[in-house]
Amino acid sequence: MSGCRIARGCQRLRKQDFLDMLKYKKNMKLGILYGVIQLCIIGYLIGWVFVMKKSYQSVEESIQSSVVTKVKGVVSINSSDTGFSLWGPEDYVIPPHGDANLFIKTNFIETPNQTLDYCAEVSASLTVFTSRHGSDTVPDGRCSDDDDCPPGEAVRAGHGIKTGRCLKKDRNDTGTCEIHGWCPVESSQKSHVPWLGKAENFTIYIKNFIRFPRFSFSKSNVRETQDKSYLQKCNYDELVHPYCPIFRLGDIINKTGHRFQDMAQAGGAIGILINWNCNLDIGSSQCHPKYSFIRLDFYSSITTFNFRYARYYKNAAGQTYRTLFKVYGIRFYIMVHGKAGEFRIIPTLINIGSGLALLGAGSFLCDGLLCIMMGRADPSRGG
Ligand SMILES: *[C@@H]1O[C@H](CO)[C@@H](O)[C@H](O)[C@H]1NC(C)=O
Ligand SMILES: *[C@@H]1O[C@H](CO)[C@@H](O)[C@H](O)[C@H]1NC(C)=O
Ligand SMILES: *[C@@H]1O[C@H](CO)[C@@H](O)[C@H](O)[C@H]1NC(C)=O
Ligand SMILES: *[C@@H]1O[C@H](CO)[C@@H](O)[C@H](O)[C@H]1NC(C)=O
Ligand SMILES: *[C@@H]1O[C@H](CO)[C@@H](O)[C@H](O)[C@H]1NC(C)=O
């Protein structure tokens, strides 16, 4: 131990005190305290700064990533309206090109055989459900007189252009304007069982390629394995197959704490988070992705997630007609985060340097403590 470095700072320090201090320095208790403080600092440096925080590593948090998805599963639908049909990924995945943000159709309302024609804003041929609620969904379409339907004006939030005729209720009609548009207009009747309820068993294969440019390190989440059929057999499971990149839709929804069948009916948004936390010092084979799943939309029974699209056809007579789909489904957002660290001499030297400075500060602190205790221990000094 070198001399009392703080000595000059100690007020009213006299020669006698200084000699006393040297005496105290030889004191057992103070010696132990000094040792304990230095040990604490060394422990903190090694345990926290170097082992826990790995500050001997250079860390990169900007991950470069690419995600490719592939959905698999086939489902058959036998409905009284449209008959038997078979749905494959090419039908229910939008867009179909394997994007990181994908939409899987789980329910839909189909309005077949629409042609450009004249019809009521709410068609008389629709079900009780629609004629009761239809005019409420398109309030601008309601009318009691032809004056309520100025020709050429589009129905606000409606389906076409007003023709100037009011299909009056007292004539046993809909009480809405006649429109020029795709007729008949869509029925807002909703099927109560998700049509693609079996989509629970569909799987998403997520291929994620990442790169940490600072370390020129690349990796994929698809495990390199001798067993060629591994990917055909496995389904992601937190415990059994944590590195299997194939996810059952039902499992994903279940992990977010929701039920697939509820979500399939009205739609929703799900985030799939892939987190890479790699310590490149212990080898690239130890660098694994960790998956987690969250529901992104505010869940309520009122908000639904849907959009519409149409398929156009021409019949033999050359007339264009279309089938309109209002689709409900689950939107998946795949988000990749990560960081990697590797030993580098510069951060190591910097941290050793600051460690040494901390040790110096430690002995400075001890000296200061010594000064204070000196003052307390020597009441004759006055003050
Ligand atoms: C579809 O359902 C109808 C009755 O609703 C039935 O007659 C028909 O055989 C079914 N088709 C198939 C392929 O299951
Ligand atoms: C749609 O049109 C086709 C041919 O024009 C017809 O066979 C079919 O029954 C129509 N479907 C509906 C639901 O009107
Ligand atoms: C109104 O329509 C109902 C059923 O659509 C029918 O039974 C009734 O006779 C119609 N009334 C008139 C006045 O057309
Ligand atoms: C999903 O698959 C399992 C077995 O693989 C089956 O028992 C279950 O009925 C299927 N679920 C649906 C909704 O088809
Ligand atoms: C998720 O699945 C487990 C096991 O199959 C089940 O016990 C649990 O109730 C499910 N959670 C939800 C939210 O459906």
What does this protein look like?
Belongs to the P2X receptor family. Keywords: Cell membrane, Disulfide bond, Glycoprotein, Ion channel, Ion transport, Ligand-gated ion channel, Membrane, Transmembrane, Transmembrane helix, Transport. The chain crosses the membrane at residues 31-51. This protein is α+β, with helices and mostly antiparallel strands and 383 residues long. The chain is built from eight helices and 15 strands. It is elongated. The two termini are 28 Å apart. The model is unreliable at 6-12 and 123-136 (pLDDT under 50). One 2-acetamido-2-deoxy-beta-D-glucopyranose (NAG) is lined by residues 254, 257-259.
**Rounded average pLDDT:** 81
Rounded to the nearest angstrom, the distance between the terminal CA atoms is: 28 Å
Question: Helix/strand-derived class?
Answer: alpha+beta
How many DSSP-defined strands?
15
User: What is the share of helical residues?
Assistant: 25-40%
Radius of gyration: 37 Å
- Broad shape: elongated
